[in-house]
Protein backbone atom coordinates (compact mmCIF):
# COMPACT_ATOMS: atom_id res chain seq x y z
CA UNK A 1 0.00 0.00 0.00
CA UNK A 2 2.50 2.65 -1.05
CA UNK A 3 -0.29 5.12 -1.76
CA UNK A 4 -1.25 5.08 1.92
CA UNK A 5 1.46 7.59 2.79
CA UNK A 6 1.37 11.33 2.22
CA UNK A 7 4.38 13.63 2.18
CA UNK A 8 3.58 17.29 2.62
CA UNK A 9 5.51 20.33 1.42
CA UNK A 10 7.70 20.21 4.57
CA UNK A 11 8.57 16.55 3.86
CA UNK A 12 6.50 15.39 6.82
CA UNK A 13 5.26 11.85 6.33
CA UNK A 14 1.80 10.91 7.49
CA UNK A 15 -0.69 8.19 6.76
CA UNK A 16 -3.76 8.95 4.72
CA UNK A 17 -7.15 8.66 6.34
CA UNK A 18 -9.07 5.60 5.21
CA UNK A 19 -11.45 7.80 3.21
CA UNK A 20 -8.48 9.31 1.34
CA UNK A 21 -7.41 5.98 -0.16
CA UNK A 22 -8.33 5.83 -3.83
CA UNK A 23 -10.15 2.49 -3.54
CA UNK A 24 -12.24 3.70 -0.63
CA UNK A 25 -12.89 7.05 -2.27
CA UNK A 26 -14.21 5.25 -5.33
CA UNK A 27 -16.51 3.10 -3.20
CA UNK A 28 -17.77 6.16 -1.33
CA UNK A 29 -18.57 7.85 -4.65
CA UNK A 30 -20.51 4.77 -5.76
CA UNK A 31 -22.46 4.71 -2.49
CA UNK A 32 -23.23 8.42 -2.75
CA UNK A 33 -24.42 8.00 -6.34
CA UNK A 34 -26.74 5.13 -5.37
CA UNK A 35 -27.98 7.08 -2.37
CA UNK A 36 -28.78 10.07 -4.60
CA UNK A 37 -30.83 7.82 -6.88
CA UNK A 38 -32.75 6.52 -3.86
CA UNK A 39 -33.38 10.06 -2.63
CA UNK A 40 -34.66 11.11 -6.05
CA UNK A 41 -36.99 8.12 -6.16
CA UNK A 42 -38.30 9.07 -2.72
CA UNK A 43 -39.27 12.48 -4.07
CA UNK A 44 -41.46 10.96 -6.77
CA UNK A 45 -45.18 11.64 -6.72
CA UNK A 46 -46.23 8.11 -5.79
CA UNK A 47 -49.93 8.93 -5.67
CA UNK A 48 -49.91 9.98 -9.35
CA UNK A 49 -48.46 6.67 -10.59
CA UNK A 50 -50.09 3.49 -11.68
CA UNK A 51 -49.24 0.20 -9.96
CA UNK A 52 -46.64 -0.84 -12.54
CA UNK A 53 -44.78 2.46 -12.19
CA UNK A 54 -44.76 2.14 -8.40
CA UNK A 55 -43.42 -1.42 -8.67
CA UNK A 56 -40.70 -0.20 -11.01
CA UNK A 57 -39.67 2.58 -8.61
CA UNK A 58 -39.68 0.27 -5.59
CA UNK A 59 -37.62 -2.33 -7.44
CA UNK A 60 -35.12 0.34 -8.50
CA UNK A 61 -34.87 1.58 -4.90
CA UNK A 62 -34.24 -1.88 -3.50
CA UNK A 63 -31.69 -2.66 -6.20
CA UNK A 64 -29.78 0.50 -5.30
CA UNK A 65 -29.94 -0.39 -1.61
CA UNK A 66 -28.60 -3.85 -2.45
CA UNK A 67 -25.74 -2.33 -4.44
CA UNK A 68 -24.87 -0.07 -1.50
CA UNK A 69 -24.89 -3.06 0.84
CA UNK A 70 -22.50 -4.90 -1.49
CA UNK A 71 -20.03 -2.00 -1.30
CA UNK A 72 -19.78 -1.94 2.50
CA UNK A 73 -17.81 -5.21 2.86
CA UNK A 74 -15.29 -3.84 0.36
CA UNK A 75 -14.56 -0.89 2.64
CA UNK A 76 -14.32 -3.19 5.67
CA UNK A 77 -11.83 -5.39 3.81
CA UNK A 78 -9.70 -2.43 2.75
CA UNK A 79 -9.78 -1.10 6.32
CA UNK A 80 -8.55 -4.44 7.65
CA UNK A 81 -5.73 -4.61 5.10
CA UNK A 82 -4.79 -0.99 5.79
CA UNK A 83 -4.59 -1.58 9.55
CA UNK A 84 -2.40 -4.66 9.00
CA UNK A 85 -0.16 -2.64 6.71
CA UNK A 86 0.22 0.19 9.21
CA UNK A 87 0.88 -2.17 12.12
CA UNK A 88 3.71 -3.91 10.22
CA UNK A 89 5.61 -0.69 9.61
CA UNK A 90 8.60 0.03 11.86
CA UNK A 91 8.14 2.86 14.30
Report on this structure.
The radius of gyration is 20 Å and the shape is elongated. Strand 1 (5-7) and strand 2 form a beta hairpin. Strands 1-2 form a two-stranded antiparallel sheet. By secondary structure, it is mainly alpha-helical. The protein is built from two helices and two strands; from the N terminus they run E-E-H-H. It has a domain at 19-76.
Give the SSE map.
Blueprint: E1 5-7, E2 13-15, H1 22-42, H2 51-88
Antiparallel strand pairs: 1-2
Helix pairs in contact: 1-2
Globular, elongated, flat, extended or rod-shaped: what is the shape? elongated
Count of DSSP strands: 2
Give the amount of beta strand, in percent.
Answer: 5-15%
- Sketch the major β-sheet: 2 strands, antiparallel
User: In DSSP terms, counting alpha (H) and pi (I) runs of 4 or more, how many helices?
Assistant: 2
Bin the helical content.
55-70%
Short précis:
Helix content is 65%, strand content 7%.
Please give a handful of descriptors for the protein shown.
single chain, 91 residues, mainly alpha, two-stranded antiparallel ribbon, 2 strands
